[in-house]
Recover the amino acids of this structure.
C-alpha cells in the first residue's frame, strides 16, 4: 500500500493550510469574541458579544473571563464592558512588521496616488470580508479618508472582494459564495449576478469595478504570488452619478500597470 501524503506536503503542494487533526472549539469561540471588536468599537458587554457572535451568554461569560485573565480583554468598570487589551496592539504591530510584500509595494502605491490624486489600497481576505493592509488616500474629494490599515469591507459588494473571488479555485469560490449568500437574503440573486459580471470582466480585462459607496468608484485586480498568498489591489476616485463605468475604463490600464510593477518588485526581491 502506498504511503499517504503528509498534510505538510499537501500544504506545500496546494498552497493551502491542510491538517488532519481537529481544531479547538473553545479557542475558536474565544477568537470569535476578539473578532467582534471592529474599528471604532469602544467597549462591548457580554450581551453585545453574544449578539455579535451568536454564542450563548454563559459561554461568552466563561470566555471573557479567560480572555481577561490572559490580557486579551480588559474590563472597564465605568463602561461596564470589555475593551481590547494592549497585547492586541502588539500582535497588530507584529503582523505589520512581517509584511515585506507591503513594504515593497507601498512606494509604488504612494507614487501613483500622489501623481494622479487618487486612492490606492492593498488588501487581503479574512472570512467574508477584505481587510486593508494599507491605503494611500490622495483623492481630491474627502470621501473614505477614514480608511486605515485594518479597515474591513464586504467581499460581495466591493471590487476588492470580487477581485479576490476571481483568484480562488472554483471549489473554494463556490464555498465562499455559499457562506456569503445568507448575509444578503433576497438581495443575493442580484448581488450574485453582479459578482458574475465582475468575474467575467476580470477574465477579459484583468480588473473589475464597483460603486459600493455613493460618489466613489473603485477598480481592483487580484495579485497572486507564490506559496498561495493572494492580495487584491485597488484604486478609487470620486465619481459623479453615471460616471463610474467611464472612469473605470479610463483607469483600468493604470491599475494594471501598477499591479505589474508591484509583482515585478516582489519577484525581484525573492531573487
Amino acid at each position: 500500500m502506498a504511503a499517504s501524503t503528509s498534510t505538510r506536503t499537501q500544504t506545500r503542494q496546494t498552497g493551502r493550510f491542510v491538517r488532519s487533526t481537529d481544531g479547538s472549539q473553545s479557542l475558536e469561540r474565544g477568537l470569535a469574541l476578539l473578532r467582534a471588536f471592529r474599528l471604532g468599537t469602544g467597549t462591548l458587554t457580554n450581551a453585545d458579544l453574544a449578539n455579535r457572535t451568536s454564542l450563548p451568554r454563559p459561554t461568552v461569560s466563561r470566555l471573557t473571563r479567560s480572555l481577561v485573565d490572559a490580557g486579551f480583554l480588559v474590563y472597564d468598570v465605568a463602561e461596564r464592558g470589555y475593551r481590547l487589551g494592549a497585547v492586541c496592539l502588539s500582535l497588530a504591530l507584529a503582523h505589520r512588521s512581517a509584511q515585506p510584500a507591503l513594504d515593497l509595494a507601498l512606494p509604488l502605491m504612494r507614487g501613483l496616488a500622489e501623481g494622479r490624486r487618487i486612492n490606492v489600497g492593498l488588501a487581503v481576505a479574512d472570512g467574508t470580508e477584505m481587510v486593508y493592509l494599507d491605503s494611500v488616500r490622495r483623492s481630491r474629494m474627502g470621501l473614505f479618508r477614514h480608511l486605515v490599515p485594518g479597515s474591513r469591507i464586504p467581499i460581495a459588494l466591493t471590487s476588492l472582494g470580487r477581485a479576490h473571488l476571481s483568484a480562488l479555485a472554483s471549489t473554494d469560490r463556490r464555498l465562499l459564495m455559499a457562506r456569503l449568500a445568507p448575509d444578503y437574503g433576497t438581495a443575493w440573486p442580484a448581488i450574485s449576478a453582479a459578482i458574475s459580471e465582475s468575474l467575467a470582466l476580470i477574465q477579459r480585462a484583468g480588473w473589475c469595478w464597483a460603486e459600493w459607496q455613493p460618489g466613489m468608484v473603485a477598480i481592483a485586480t487580484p495579485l497572486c504570488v507564490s506559496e498561495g498568498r493572494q492580495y487584491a489591489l485597488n484604486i478609487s476616485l470620486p465619481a459623479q452619478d453615471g460616471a463610474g463605468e467611464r472612469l473605470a475604463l479610463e483607469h483600468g490600464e493604470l491599475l494594471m500597470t501598477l499591479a505589474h510593477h508591484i509583482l515585478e518588485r516582489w519577484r525581484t526581491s525573492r531573487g
